[in-house]
Amino acid sequence: QVQLVQSGAEVKKPGASVKVSCKASGYTFTGYYMHWVRQAPGQGLEWMGWINPNSGGTHYAQKFQGRVTMTRDTSISTAYMELSGLISDDTAVYYCGRRMVPATSGLYDYWGQGALVTVSS
Amino acid sequence: QSVLTQPPSASGTPGQRVTISCSGSSSNIGGNTVNWYQVLPGTAPKLLIYSNDLRPSGVPDRFSGSKSGTSASLAISGLQSDDEADYYCAVWDDSLNGPVFGGGTKLTVL
To answer: Does A61 lie at the interface with B, CB-CB under 8 angstroms?
Structure first.
């Protein structure tokens, strides 16, 4: 069965970077785009960007450009999201989500369990 | 400020039918298919509806979706206590080349 398993919770100081992983299993990792979405406490869902695991190509939301880097390691079917220059407003649960195929059918059919990132001095 | 507009809250009694609306524009709902997600506290979003009105396997037929123009709706019939959750609409936005989400609707079962 399809599973996306994310890394654990992190506590970071302002200005630091965080790297969250998302390990995929149960399907062909390179066949589906992976997106990253976050949810701050009491807030809604916010899209951050996507990576094409096949080519490594990425597209980031304008808000995060310059601060976010999405990568993948196809040998271990894992996608990564690294966010730098952390501020308190980056405190959120970060999710990876598998984009449906074909893309016209919908957005995300499977999600990771989420990784809480807390930014605090 | 979310790109898609949802009511912040909705409520109903067990057995009732409730609907949640989602309003967008021609660059998102008007030109792409709508998805609905259920988010329970401390859990990952769960796909309820995709392609406007299709249910993934395992989602009860009490949940239904519809779309007209630049608006969409999620209907939940035979309301149950474990339907208490936050519900989000989501759709691809051509101008952003990425998805946009509604602000979420908190459903309370009275």
So the answer is: yes
